[in-house]
Structure of MmcQ/YjbR family DNA-binding protein:
Amino acid sequence: MADAEDVRRLALALPGVVEIASDGFDFRVANKGFIWSYPERVPGKPRVIRTDIAVLYVGDEAEKQALLLGEPDLFFTTPGYDGFPLVMVRLAAVDVPRLTELVTDAWQMRAPVTTDPGAPPAPVDAASASRAAPGRGRRSAG
């Protein structure tokens, strides 16, 4: 069973990763998100940041469908993510070795080609860390 702290530890161990300030977790490399807390939306209610569920970049629709169909207890999606190469991961259902694989794969798909996963994490300057993509930067409950 994994949790948000496992996500944080795994993501920050990778080179060039920046954690964006949020109500949950939000990790990027080269200003591209690869894993973040699920912002659950319920019609008529404020969204709730779910740190027990991670939104994970998977590269393409074929991989998304393979994960959804192959491991439905672990992965799911919602209509708001239709057309995007993203799945939600139930952290309580995934073990840490599998989460390590998922986080590393997502990072590799988003990192610059020259980034070596074995290299130490790059230092992060405050200016680059504060440049959040619209809609996913600072999160609030409303």
Q: What stands out?
A: The chain has one domain: 4-114. Confidence is low (pLDDT under 50) at residues 122-142. The chain has four helices and six strands. The two ends are 29 Å apart (CA to CA).
